[in-house]
Amino acid sequence: MAKEHEGRAVGIDLGTTYSCVAVWLDQHQRVEIIHNDQGNRTTPSFVAFNNEQRLMVMLLRINLLLTLKTLSLVNFYFYYLLLHVYAKRLTGRKFSDLVVQRDILLWPFKVISGVNDKPMITVNYKGQEKHFCAEEISSMLLTKMREVAEAYLGSPVKNAVVTVPAYFNDSQRKATIDAGTIAGLNVIRIINEPTAAAIAYGLDKRNDCDGNRNIFVFDLGGGTFDVSILTIKGDLFEVKATAGNTHLGGEDFDNRMVNYFVEELKKKNKVDIKQNPKSLRRLRTACERAKRILSFAFVTTVEVDALFMGIDFSSSITRAKFEELNMDFFNECMNIVDTCLRDSKIYKSNIDDIVLVGGSSRIPKVQELLLEFFKGKELFMGINPDEAVAYGAAVQAAILSEGFKNAPNLVLRDVTPLSLGIATYKENIMSVVIPRNTSIPVKKTNGYFTLYDNQCIVDFPVYEGERPRATDNNLLGSFRLHCLPAPRGHPLEACFSIDENGILTVTAREISTGNMNAITITNDKERLSMFDIEKMIKEAAKYHVEDMQFLRRAKVMCALDSCVYNMKNALKKNNVNLILTPQEIEKINNAITVAMNLLDKNNKEKEIDVLEGHLEDLESMSKHLISKANNFIFLG
Ligand code: ADP
Ligand code: MG
């Protein structure tokens, strides 16, 4: 394979809670996870500011930082924040919207509304109030990871493969590339976290399997949950399906425990610490620690001295209680596992390996549910769940960059997580061009027709999502095609292409003239949050019945519209008087008027049965007209 990128590229797992950087050691033909200046192999995804300087948190323990009053700490949850940046912009929510405001409350830093209502993080830096957008903050983390790699390699690092949750939409992928650019890194490829983990796992395995090997990757991290099913065949790593929830992870489990103790404090000490962010933060840190302990112990204590109003908090929690508090989250994980398997069309008995990734996959209950689901099939925990993603990214980086002569040979084929298409203008139907879980890169073309005679402008609204009604999905962008005047039904085509990074470009063309227009969906377009994506998929299932009704209605409306158009044209012909009696003409005209009333925009709630009944009448009139016309050689 021709190597496109100069120098040695590294692989970076830019996690919600921890980040990790790795490099392929060509001489030893293995991956090295690079330790930071603290000697740790993973680095907290935190950025802190004080009046004098910006500190990367690994310089100090987080706990220590939390007690340093001089520091205004930016506890930056990268994906979390992106989620809110996009959620607000995409669903047209204002900054003051309750949903946005509620989440902001949980963050130990101020967020304000910036240009275009973009949330901006506010910090005091060098005596001034500074505002940063999500990309800027993540670029700080990427910079740190680049420096960690440079210190180890002893040379500048320009290129990197960066991983993202499989469920990131193309706007968020673009934002990640932008963050790399800000950090002085050329992001040569964006790959999905579970796919990267599968590479880490499958690299050795592929030698000792003849035929296909089906791998199931379960990645439960701090703020995101991703599952993917891959098939390895020789050098080909092919993703079959992916699913996830980008708002589900360890932090949610921590929150449940925090709330549990907040209630206990209310009862026992008659205080509500919810009003005090600092106390809440300290309790949360203690809960996170307790949660980890409960992964190997059955009971633990949570102690925070001088938590609130002089109260020294001390309490205990059992593993059983922790599981009870989070059981709905764990069940949600298993539902997603089930969806992914169904999408992949692979039976669970045909899964060869189950690979656990992400810190939260260490939770015993999660493992127990997985074991039960896969009927006792052994779970693979041999690779470090904190490092597997960066490991896979480093392998991919080695394959793509020229600095490595002995990089392994493997071809990665990933999928797109959401269906992409165009709203057919009049009936608002989602015309899917690329269905979800299609292998990328991919290029697909669909044909369309103009709706009116002499229609010179055609709009192409591009959507992502699983609902049949286009406007129930997320609008990615829209563009216009100018065409020459022509009768209705003038042919056009739209071409969707998704590159290796999952970024979409759409072009539309008037076939006769070759007139073209194109858009690349970028992050300055209004985009959907991951939260909304999940909501849409859930809604898609819930509203399936309603959707079917909508499709049935849209279909009959289209047919009726087309029938009216044809009959009106037929009635315009000179010789129609020779074919039909005046009574027949009047009957048809009446039927057309009724149909047009039914088609009227304001008549949306008309019963489908009524529409279908009238269509039947009109079609039989049309048949009658044609059969009569066939007896008259002049018609036409
Ligand atoms: P991300 O990829 O989202 O940055 P990680 O895979 O690094 O996340 O996982 C971090 C999460 O895993 C945190 O919520 C942390 O509390 C949780 N975690 C780490 N170790 C354990 C453990 N032993 N038991 C339970 N949760 C754990
Ligand atoms: Mg992760």
TrEMBL record:
This is Heat shock cognate 70 kDa protein. The keyword Lipid metabolism does not apply. It comes from the Eukaryota. The keyword Membrane applies. It holds the Pfam family HSP70. Belongs to the heat shock protein 70 family. GO terms for cellular component: cytoplasm. The chain crosses the membrane at residues 64-87. Signal peptide: none annotated. Gene3D superfamilies: 1.20.1270.10, 3.30.30.30, 3.30.420.40, Actin, Chain A, domain 4 (3.90.640.10), Substrate Binding Domain Of DNAk, Chain A, domain 1 (2.60.34.10). GO terms for molecular function: ATP binding; ATP hydrolysis activity; ATP-dependent protein folding chaperone; heat shock protein binding; protein folding chaperone. InterPro entries: ATPase_NBD, Heat_shock_70_CS, HSP70_C_sf, HSP70_peptide-bd_sf, Hsp_70_fam. One of its GO terms (biological process) is protein refolding. It comes from Medicago truncatula. Keywords: ATP-binding, Membrane, Nucleotide-binding, Stress response, Transmembrane, Transmembrane helix.
